[in-house]
Design goal:
Shape of chain A: globular
Oligomer: homodimer
Radius of gyration of chain A: 19 Å
Largest sheet of chain A: 12 strands, mixed
Strand content of chain A: 25-35%
Mean pLDDT of chain A: 94
Distance between the termini of chain A: 17 Å
Number of helices of chain A: 8
Helix content of chain A: 25-40%
Chain lengths: 325, 325
């Protein structure tokens, strides 16, 4: 069987995904909208081989931890079921950014794995089916199949076949920028699935959170269509704050932020008062992510870089969907 | 007319008050439960004098700013209406803690003013009526009339006569402690009434927030009755986080915290993991407030004092209601 090497990018949700309608199938309770981000990439090489007695997983040059390796194997089982093969695979995967630190490495990782595995097995599968497949590995991986600006349909079917992502703007259609501050390169305190489930089952705000996502998503789509950055930015910041607020009201309250995250929110608001159009967002980790346009990127980057507690920044722009390399 | 000098203490809500059902009358949309805190005191001396042509207000040794002076005068107009006098007053008020920095100086201030003014005018008014009157000056001032542990009834009448606070435990009944970290002695970024109104009118979580307060209040009352500190502490932290979460989901999101506030939340959680029963709370400002029992006070105080960004700490214990001195 052939060796396949693919590259996938991480993505940043502007309208957040936070809450599942089906845990097993990774089906979201609401849709979401994201940016596919260059240069946050995962490169994965896979080869299925008859002589292997189990899947072999190397992550960033080292034998992967059992938990991650078995997650990869579980995903490959789904692909094997679909294709009819029984061969195990060797998987070599490299992340170009800190793993498991709220920088969505599982999104690019499972997008890359889904594409590499189906390609290596010679499967005929379109991009929407591929997105739905990647979703099985990690929900947000569905959004790392297309490039540019992406919408992930919540869908309604129990088999998940209508829950995939598709592009609404190409990587060159709108020059949006994201400046990420690395506030704490350590692993997450709470995994996102666990946090979502705790929020779904204990937060009094969960139902209202989901209702607000539907509205934010429709408005964000219109803002993308009209290239209205102010509208998109306001929805972005609101969606992030509302998501974190819903989690914070869980029992016990989930707090993904650290002090630097909060100072970054205040920084973004000061920047806006000074005329720099910058909007805050943040995921299941403390890293502040600031969305802006190309003309404000330098201002945002130097402001974020000088915030105490920020150890480094990563400047991102829109990138392409998953590709063979 | 006689000179009257009174002393009132600030209070800290464990079950938070955040949302009004009547702005004009300062009527809360839900009840709340608080600790009356020694040594956070306001001392107010008042004298009504026929020769004055307007109210004269000194705050912390200086002529009060117009906004504060007219708030005091507006309150004294209510008292003058009730008593039938038309005399203006000289008011000298001193806070033993930073004014307008989320440390509830308006609560102790209007409690002291209500008591001093009615006493100076020789009015016959019981403690519940006095609490309802103090409420007109600042909602939470209703809770600074009694001492110890206090419940403020939301009430339902439009004239506010059933919206007053009463004690549920005396200052010596339970040795609770509060350690306050002064994270930023500056004035608040958003006033609490403005923040409440923005949350009420724009936060998708406001309705659920109010519903949760009713439940938290009933459970907190039971915890006080049973002297169950674990239950009271958990409700305290949950109530604070849910309140801040409801505000954070406002449009625009209201963020009372700074970086130090968030690090204090993480600190409290580390303390609990290490066996120190400490619970976080926070009001319309960045100051973290940690509730504990006497046996853990030293541990909590030294941990909070060494948190970066904390300029000083204030150790508090339960105190008495408003008194003439």
């Amino acid at each position: 069987m052939k060796n396949v090497r693919v590259r996938a990018l991480a993505n940043l949700a502007l309208v957040k995904y936070f809450g599942k309608r089906d845990l097993q199938m990774n089906l979201p309770a609401a849709g979401s909208l994201s940016l596919t981000l260059e240069p946050l990439s995962t490169t994965t090489e896979i080869a299925f081989r008859p002589e292997l007695e189990r899947d072999m997983v190397l992550l960033d040059g080292k034998k992967a931890a059992d938990k991650f390796a078995s997650r990869v194997s579980g995903f490959l089982d789904i692909v094997r079921d679909m294709s009819g093969t029984s061969e195990y695979a060797s998987v070599v995967t490299e992340n170009a950014f800190p793993t498991a630190a709220g920088l969505a490495s599982s999104a690019s990782g499972f997008a890359a794995l889904a594409y590499a595995a189906t390609k290596a097995l010679g499967m005929t599968i379109d991009k929407e089916q591929l997105s739905a497949l990647a979703r099985r590995g990690s929900g947000s991986a569905a959004r790392s199949i297309p490039g540019g600006i992406v919408v992930w349909n919540a869908g309604e079917k129990s088999d998940g076949s209508d829950s995939f992502a598709y592009p609404v703007a190409g990587p060159d259609d709108w020059d949006l920028r994201v400046v990420i501050g690395v506030a704490d390169p350590g692993p997450k305190a709470v995994g996102s699935t666990e946090a979502m489930e705790l929020t779904r089952t204990t937060s009094p705000y969960y139902r209202e959170w989901l209702d607000s996502v539907h509205i934010d998503l429709m408005n964000a789509l219109r803002a993308v269509e009209q290239r209205n950055f102010t509208d998109l930015g306001e929805i972005t910041e609101r969606s992030a704050l509302s998501m974190h607020a819903a989690a914070l009201a869980g029992r016990p309250g989930i707090l993904f932020w650290n002090g630097t995250t909060v100072e970054a929110i205040h920084l973004v608001r000061r920047l806006r008062q000074q005329g720099t159009e910058a909007y805050f967002t943040c995921d299941a980790g403390p890293q502040p992510k600031i969305v802006c346009t190309k003309s404000d990127e330098d201002t945002v980057a130097s402001a974020l870089e000088s915030l105490p507690g920020i150890t480094r920044i990563i400047r991102c722009h829109l990138g392409a969907g998953v590709t063979e390399i």
